[in-house]
Amino acid sequence: MNQSQPAVRKTYDPRTTFDPVKRLLAKTTNPKHRAILENHHIHGLLEVTGRWQQILSPALTVDHPHYCHSDGLRTTVYDGRDSVATFYGGLFDSGMLNLLGPMGDDYMVSDWGFATFGMWGYQLTGPMAQEYGFEIDDLDAHYYMTQYQTQTWCYNENAKLIGEYILEDPGTRIYWKMDPSEVQSGEKHLQILEEQYQEAIQLPQYRKLLGIE
């Protein structure tokens, strides 16, 4: 795959990560749909702030979750609590946790769960870009990749997460070599997301889900 030079180098902005779900919550009145979206919102905040172990609490997730992630070439299945924990732990250890995210997802919610579609952005190190099969000229540089992907998250009758199904579209991938001045800081992103988490847990519905007195 060759590098692209998009007219506008749009990248992931952590300040807008949860705007789509908050907009949908603002106009959703169905109690179960609201419960699903609230579960997802706090799930996302726990994930991006490194509190992923709490995602697997009985208040948020069923006893035996099932995740399927496809990059368009292969599908990886995480079946059961221990396997899903391995997924989150690996994402956290990769250093990518706050350097990838949605760049404007469309959401829909129903009794079974919700689905999203939109572009995602990923900041990659040189070796990571090479693993994607990109033609790179500097392993010490950073590269940026965007792609479209869909996500389907399923919930039970009590609005607890059953599993998530993520499908990436490799045919939509573009990437470019980042100028050093463009390289984003994971620490700065974490600070922005931590502020959003602290704001959210002031709300009673999220305190209840997390067991905060």
Descriptive keywords:
213 residues; alpha+beta; Nuclear Transport Factor 2, Chain: A; seven-stranded mixed beta sheet; 6 helices; 7 strands; 32% helix
Fold and architecture overview:
With 213 residues, this protein is an alpha+beta fold. The protein has one domain (14-210): Nuclear Transport Factor 2, Chain: A. Helix content is 32%, strand content 29%. It has six helices and seven strands. Strands 1, 2, 3, 4, 5, 6 and 7 form a seven-stranded mixed beta sheet that branches. Helix 1 runs antiparallel to helix 2 (31-48) and helix 2 (31-48) runs antiparallel to helix 5. The longest helix has 18 residues, at 31-48. It is globular and about 50 Å long. The N and C termini lie far apart (52 Å). The model has no long low-confidence stretch (mean pLDDT 94).
Rg from C-alpha positions?
A: 17 Å
Which fold name is given in CATH as the topology? Nuclear Transport Factor 2, Chain: A
**What is the straight-line distance between the termini?**
52 Å
User: Structural class given helices, strands, pairing?
Assistant: alpha+beta
User: Taking all residues together, what is the mean pLDDT?
Assistant: 94
Task: Count all strands and give the number.
Answer: 7
Low-confidence parts lasting 5 or more residues at pLDDT below 50?
A: none
> How many structural domains?
1
- Indicate the CATH class: Alpha Beta
Please report which band the strand proportion falls in: under 5%, 5-15%, 15-25%, 25-35%, 35-45% or over 45%: 25-35%
Gross morphology is globular
Helix content range: 25-40%
Largest sheet: 7 strands, mixed
Write the H/E string, N to C.
Answer: HHEEHEEEHEEHH
Helix count from the secondary structure assignment: 6
Q: What's the CATH architecture?
A: Roll
